[in-house]
Specification:
It is built from 7 helices and 11 strands. By secondary structure, the chain is of the alpha+beta class. Helix 5 packs across helix 6.
Amino acid sequence: MSSKAIEPIYFYLTGNWYKGKMPNFYDVSGFESTKILEENYLQIKEEINHFYETDQQSLKPNFTPYKYLEEGWRTINLHAFMLKYPKNIKKFPVIESVINKIPNVVTVQVAVLNPQTRVKAHFGDTNAIIRNHLGVIVPGVYPELGFRNGTKEKCWEEGKVLAICIAHRHYVWNYTNQKRIILLVDTIHPDYLRYKYLICGGLLAASALKLIATRYPVTKKTPHWMVRALHKIVASVFVVILVIQEKLGINLSTITDKLKVEL
């Protein structure tokens, strides 16, 4: 891909639906991340199965804003937009060793979709990352199990990577009688590598503002121009936190543990 971004960086902040041209699903055949994840699938699956059997209480309902809580969609974050969670990372040494081989990873999450669960349609917050799903346990085939992104629908395959642009409106469902588990890995889109800190700071800021709006609904009436201004201010704070973490080796996750990151 070219060094020049093909479209401006987009953040979903004020109901501004994404109108760019990123694909719904990426062709993953040329991605280095695909090769690394698929080559290590069996070891990853073994570690996740062990975790699920011994420590599944660490999985929490995934946060989605505005009082919607989907109990059947449960996750654990190892990394979230460059924030690191050491206690969770220690639970998955194999995954962490594999992730360390992949360039420009910013998010790592184990995600479980329980039987008979449909997640409400929602938006991701940017066009500047590629979200990779490695199918770990896939208990069915389309259409009883699947992923709709924009106008396209696909199903996961065990040991294979499915990758999307999260800026499109999307949702997932599992109408089987067994759990579906994927390993979610976000990488920065190659066209936006030089903006990595800005992108991750912006994503964390967007999540923070959504958390505030969820807890204090009156803030949803804030003028759009003010929301955008607040986003820039909060994003700059997160950029400083991320730079300190990465450049100085000081992990500030204790400060941000209570932040609910929408993935």
